[in-house]
Design a protein that fits this description.
4-stranded antiparallel beta sheet; 3-stranded antiparallel beta sheet; about 20% strand
Length: about 425
């Protein structure tokens, strides 16, 4: 899912997650600065959307994510192998990012780019993060409800997206239809609520109201994080489902911020349970260092530090699978990695996910990733609909108010012209 959530860890679980650490408010106009050491001198780089180059990099990464997601979704057909599809998604992300920004920056350094979250293709009751090794894969079956999740970055500026689809062409009226429409409507409401001055609480409440109308539950532990340069799980976030144990500090959305909105709905209880499936997605725990004992483990962590120093990766990407299997075991034991486990709902339940990236720009909120509902519009024939009056009002508003204003202005101008002609 590309977020800090749903991971198990021993001692790490005792530390408050980033979501629970206080985030210091700052004036909306203050640009985010990254201090860069330049041969003893210090230069400050503006790394938020007040810098047009940063906005361009986010948008470019968004275009690549859209292309990769669309191609993987189209390839998700009956009997297709999940591991092969995941490899295909990763290959597109690497090839497309490899075509751009190949000149060195002003300091003579190469611009980093590539995968920011490996392709995961997760069916039915599994919650996410399923990106299996070749020998542990499975084929898609007709009727499977499948979630496709991936992300890339240009110079550390990340764009992420996820989409749900139904394998085959048949329409369904069961809980698969309900959970898809719950997640989709929640995503549409979230997009309209992601406005400067609104709060994360408003979005969390919208998820709960819409889920209830479709007899579904937002999955617990899901966080939609602020994105920053090289950071996929920023401290400022929106919680999918608030519980007595899991709460986040209320924040107000600010100008020039970027968020990855992750909606994961379940037809069951909305609680993830552990599975026997191997976790293959990890992220380097940057604040932990340890000198591993075996040669293969040292080889493994050296490759991670070189290729994936701060962003999530999959064991599929490690050149030698034996090195990956041995290395990950030792690295986990010494807490050098953060794990994205494959959790599940109860058997017979279904989980749907939609994820998109938004830029909070001076001209309004811009959604740069996320596919349209597509064939699911006809396939997901839910007998439920949004009943909550507040949510109906939110969904009735435009997701792009600026365009609406321009259209209205153009209409008014046309009317004036006609009146002048008539007179």
């Amino acid at each position: 899912f590309g977020s800090r959530r749903l991971r198990r860890s021993s001692r790490a679980a005792l530390r408050p997650p980033a979501a629970h650490r206080p985030s210091v408010p700052r004036p909306a106009s203050a640009p985010r600065l990254l201090r860069m050491s330049d041969h003893g001198s210090e230069a400050e780089e503006i790394v938020d959307l007040s810098n047009p180059d940063v906005t361009t990099k986010y948008r470019t990464a968004g275009e690549i994510v859209q292309k990769a997601l669309q191609k993987v979704v189209e390839a998700c057909v009956e009997d297709a192998d999940i591991a092969t599809l995941c490899e295909m998604g990763d290959k597109i992300l690497e090839e497309e990012t490899g075509k751009l920004y190949n000149k060195k920056d002003k300091d003579g350094k190469k611009i980093e780019k590539g995968i920011a979250f490996p392709t995961c293709i997760t069916p039915n009751e599994l919650l996410g993060h399923f990106s299996p090794l070749k020998g542990e894969s499975r084929a898609l079956k007709a009727g499977d409800l499948v979630k496709v999740d991936l992300a890339c970055h240009i110079d550390g500026f990340i764009a992420a997206a996820a989409h749900t689809l139904l394998i085959g062409s048949e329409a369904v009226e069961d809980k698969r239809a309900d959970v898809v429409m719950a997640a989709w409507n929640a995503a549409e409401a979230a997009l309209r609520l992601m406005q400067v001055g609104n709060t994360n609480t408003q979005v969390t409440e919208a998820f709960a109201k819409i889920a209830a109308d479709f007899n579904c539950k937002p999955v617990q532990g899901v966080l939609s994080h602020q994105l920053k340069k090289h950071v996929i799980d920023g401290n400022r976030c929106i919680i999918g489902a608030e519980t007595a144990e899991e709460k986040v500090e209320e924040i107000e959305f600010e100008m020039n911020e970027v968020y990855c909105i992750d909606i994961v709905m379940s037809s069951g209880e909305g609680k993830g349970k552990e599975t026997e499936l191997r976790s293959t997605v990890y992220k380097r725990a940057v604040d932990t260092a340890y000198n591993l004992k075996t040669q293969k483990a040292r080889q493994f962590i050296s490759e991670i530090n070189r290729r994936f120093p701060v962003l999530p990766f999959t064991l599929r990407a490690i050149e030698d699978e034996q090195v990956a299997r041995i290395g990950v075991s030792e690295a986990r034991r010494h807490e050098l990695l953060e794990e994205y486990p494959v959790l599940k709902e109860k058997d017979g339940q279904f989980v749907a996910q939609f994820k998109f990236t938004v830029l909070l720009l001076p001209g309004g909120t811009k959604k740069i990733t996320g596919l349209p509902l597509g064939p699911l519009e006809k396939q997901a024939a839910s007998g439920c609909s949004v009943q909550d009056e507040d949510m109906k009002k939110v969904l009735a508003t435009s997701a792009n108010p600026k365009k609406q204003k321009k259209k209205k202005q153009a209409k008014d101008e046309n009317k004036d012209e006609k009146k002048e002609e008539e007179s």
